[in-house]
Design goal:
The complex is a heterodimer of chains A (283) and B (521). With 283 residues, chain A is of the alpha/beta class. Chain A is 37% helix and 23% strand. In chain A, 48% of the residues are buried. Helix content of chain B is 51%, strand content 16%. In chain B, the strands form 3 sheets. Chain B has a 6-stranded mixed barrel. A two-stranded antiparallel sheet of chain B has the order 2-11. A two-stranded antiparallel ribbon of chain B has the order 6-7. Classes of the chains: A alpha/beta (283), B alpha+beta (521). Chains A and B meet through helix 4, helix 5, helix 6 and helix 7 of A and helix 1, helix 15 and helix 20 of B. The structure holds adenosine-5'-triphosphate (ATP) and magnesium ion (MG).
Chain lengths: 283, 521
């Protein structure tokens, strides 16, 4: 049950490239797409993953309706999904198919109309708001299409934000050296070591998305939820971001659930599923 | 932690919010200035009124007064002796003051206060408002040989000197007498042309003095041969102390011009104590001026020796030689015990209510002090309303900022911030705005109080009109007292308003649904 990367912060492992990191390190992650292809063969046979594998996140008949007065708009109509620990899952679908809605439900930002979500066999969708806050702070990392960095803060402060939220003033102050080091390491991992004290508006789109990824990793999450992380970037930059995500997935064994409408982007993932009329099907 | 960081960052980057607290700032500054000035005014006023009126007054309702004030004082001593520090009898009577200025008679309604020069100071501040340093030391009704203060001894350095008070007292009196004598000599010389026989006498006694000459004119003088001859240059009439504003006026340039000066004679006309009252008059020599800087008193009071006033008004019992007085002034060991002593005297049953009135100085000046208090309260309400209006400004600005920050609020929640945490950001933002606004306001307010008079001068120069007209207020500068408690309350109140105004927007921010927040794209 231990979190995959609990002992070593992502940044440190990558930056020092110490010999402790095992076989994943090396040519394997450079040729990310190839690796994805390999693994894709296995689950293609069925949507549900083989039972012997380690299921980290699971949904049961997840439904979400939006109601405008009497008018009820069903967006999700029974989504059943299982995600393995360390898996890179891509969800594709048309605009308006409910991809973002699903991701928000998984990240406990919204409550489902019906159904349940389990994280490590623990039901999380009807927890108290305090527990859900803690979950979002510590178990999930989120990345958005429009980066959503806080414009008043510098890059490093943005990355520190989850840590500031998760700790009270005293604790944060007491550990601030450690946390600052961690944020710096993370930013170096994503290639922003030279941009620590810049404001978001001084960064390019790709740099902002890297910073957002660093922020999502700051809380040492179990799962990274990414909503169209390349949606606002040009192709080359998008590919760089994807390489970064694949790296993280392979090297740190980080579970990633990514939403996109771009099939070429989705191909970097281990497994691709499609959201059609409120239900998941194989891509 | 993030609350603090974000609210500080918002404070630094949202200048519009800073603009919204300028009104808080100005409100705080004006409240501090107004309260300080009002406090200064009422403090000065109370001080002076208190000093002039003494702590407790025991008075008769009639102008005839009561017999034997010494016996009354002994009774008062018996009843409330442990509280009393000093007592003095006085006679108060309305009168008409007239004197010659510029060759014409000037007449003023006044209140004569007959005082006992030995005990007057034991019952209140009296002599400290006089112009002659010796009189301030130990008061007496004897005319001084010059040396009256040219500089306002209670005022500030900038007070213009009163050059007209140079060479007053005996020197002035001698000069006047000399002029009078020369006029009479001159007149006599020409009168002699019409009466050759007197002319011969005049030639025999060319240095006949003025008084002797008057005696010739006034046949009644001869019937009282014992009366010593009055020589203006050497003799003074009974002393009188005039209120400063009676004796002078303030010219537009801020200088005091004198109508009558120490050494000159004035005439008082007042009713006698008998029934029906008759008007009597008496001549007095001005020996000093009384400058309490309370216009009401300075333009109303004249002080004369009580004995002389009693004589003139027939207030001395012919058989016993014991006088009457209209009031007794009491000074207490502890001035705050005024009400207690008043009630002790009232409830002692020895002084029937219909015959005597017993009041503290506050009772006497109640309406005035109350008016100042009410005025201060009204101004405070109005100014606080200004700050409240500023609060609505903050409210509106904050709503705007919350709307603008909708996305950021969504992110914070997605990162695990709780609703109360998000609320805390905006509350501490409001608080920090309040702290900045009231802090800067306090600084401005205190600076304005410190430089009140130069500021008033600049305003006067800009507007071409005196802001604080010393001819009206009789203070040379605007008095101001900064009460730390008042300032504390104002600052706390302003901060509270800023926080209150940020509560609604903060609640709105807290209730924002994170998914809704993202849908703004
Ligand atoms: N609050 C709401 N009230 C009503 N309908 C809503 C609400 N939120 C979302 N919807 C609807 O739910 C559907 C799914 O929205 P969602 O944002 O999840 O789509 P999406 O797949 O992420 O689209 P895109 O690729 O454009 O991001 C849309 O048709 C949208 O109109
Ligand atoms: Mg979407």
């Amino acid at each position: 049950m231990a979190r995959a990367d609990q002992t070593s912060p992502v940044g440190k492992a990558n930056r020092s490239s110490s010999p402790t990191t095992e076989g994943l390190h090396g040519p394997h992650f450079v040729t990310g797409p190839q690796g994805a292809e390999e693994t894709k063969n296995a689950p293609q046979s069925q949507l549900q993953t083989p039972p012997q594998r380690d299921v980290q996140l699971r949904t049961e008949n997840l439904c979400k309706n939006y109601s405008k007065g009497k008018h009820v708009v069903p967006v999700l109509r029974g989504v059943n999904l299982e995600v393995q620990r360390g898996e890179f899952l891509a969800i594709i679908g048309q605009s308006g198919s409910g991809k973002s809605t699903l991701l928000h439900l998984l990240g406990t930002l919204d409550a489902p109309t019906e159904g349940a979500i389990y994280l490590d066999d623990e039901r999380i969708d009807h927890l108290s708001s305090g527990s859900r806050n803690r979950l979002r702070n510590q178990s999930f990392g989120m990345v958005f299409q429009f980066y959503h960095l806080l414009p008043e803060l510098t890059t490093i402060e943005n990355v520190l934000m989850p840590l500031m939220i998760g700790n009270n003033v005293g604790d944060f102050f007491f550990h601030r050296r450690k946390y600052q080091q961690r944020a710096t390491d993370l930013l170096e991992t994503v290639g922003l070591g030279h941009r620590l004290h810049h404001r978001p508006k001084e960064l390019s789109g790709g740099e902002m998305q890297r910073a957002a990824i660093a922020r999502a990793l700051a809380g040492n999450p179990r799962i990274l939820l990414a909503d169209e992380p390349t949606g606002n970037l040009d192709q080359e930059t998008g590919r760089e971001i994807m390489r970064l995500l694949v790296n993280l997935n392979k090297q740190e064994n980080l579970t990633i659930i990514m939403v996109t409408h771009d099939l070429s982007v989705a191909n970097s993932a281990d497994r691709v599923v499609r959201l059609v009329s409120g239900q998941l099907e194989l891509a | 932690m993030y609350k603090l960081l974000l609210s500080l960052r918002y404070l630094r980057s949202r200048y519009i919010a800073l603009a919204s607290i300028i009104s808080v700032m100005l409100g705080v500054a004006t409240m501090i200035v107004v309260n300080s000035v009002m406090a200064g005014f009422s403090f000065e006023m109370k001080n002076r009124i208190h000093g002039i009126l003494s702590d407790v007054v025991f008075e008769s309702h009639s102008l005839e007064g009561f017999y034997d004030p010494q016996a009354r004082m002994r009774e008062i001593e018996e009843i409330a002796g442990e509280h009393i520090a000093g007592m003095t009898p006085i006679v108060c009577v309305p009168a008409m003051l007239s004197f010659e200025y510029g060759g014409r008679n000037v007449t003023r309604p006044v209140q004569i206060i007959g005082i006992d020069e030995d005990t007057k100071d034991s019952a209140g501040d009296y002599s400290k408002y006089l112009l002659h340093p010796q009189n301030r030391e130990k008061f007496s009704f004897a005319l001084k040989d010059g040396g009256y203060d040219i500089y306002d001894h209670q005022g500030v350095e900038s007070t213009p000197p009163r050059d007209e008070l140079k060479e007053t007292g005996w020197p002035l009196r001698r000069k006047k007498a000399e002029w009078l004598r020369r006029w009479e000599e001159e007149d006599a010389r020409f009168k002699a042309l019409h009466e050759p026989r007197v002319h011969e006498d005049m030639e025999e006694h060319p240095l006949m003095d003025a008084e002797a000459h008057a005696a010739i004119e006034d046949p009644f003088k001869n019937s009282e041969p014992e009366t010593p001859v009055f020589d203006m240059a050497k003799d003074q009439r009974p002393g009188i102390v005039l209120g400063f504003a009676l004796a002078s006026y303030r010219a537009p340039d801020g200088r005091d011009r004198f109508l009558v000066r120490p050494g000159e004679d004035v005439q008082l006309t007042f009713p006698t104590a008998g029934t029906p009252p008759r008007a009597v008059d008496g001549l007095f020599t001005v020996v000093d001026l009384y400058e309490s800087k309370m216009n009401e008193y300075d333009s109303n009071f004249v002080f004369v020796p009580i004995r002389r006033l009693q004589e003139l008004r027939g207030m001395i019992d012919p058989q016993t030689g014991v006088g009457y007085a209209t009031a007794i002034q009491l000074k207490l060991k502890d001035p705050s015990k005024g009400d207690e002593v008043r009630d002790m005297l009232r409830s002692s049953k020895r002084f029937p209510e219909g015959l005597y009135g017993i009041y503290t100085w506050k009772d006497k000046q109640g309406p005035l002090l109350q008016a100042v208090a009410v005025e201060t309260a009204m101004l405070n309400v109005l100014l606080f309303l200004i700050i409240a209006v500023a609060g609505f400004g903050i409210l509106a600005t904050f709503f705007m900022i919350v709307v603008e920050k909708t996305r950021d609020i969504g992110i914070l929640k997605a990162l695990g911030a709780s609703s109360s945490g998000v609320m805390g950001i905006f509350l501490s933002y409001g608080l920090s705005l309040g702290i900045v606004g009231s802090g800067v306001g306090m600084a401005i307010g205190l600076l304005m109080v410190a430089y009140l008079n130069p500021i008033a001068d600049v305003l006067a120069w800009v507007m071409g009109q005196e802001v604080f007209d010393p001819t009206i207020y009789y203070f040379h500068k605007i008095p101001a007292i900064v009460d730390p408690w008042t300032v504390t309350w104002i600052v706390i109140g302003a901060m509270l308003i800023a926080v209150l105004a940020s509560i609604l927007p903060a609640i709105r921010a807290a209730c924002l649904h994170p998914v809704e927040a993202f849908r703004y794209e």
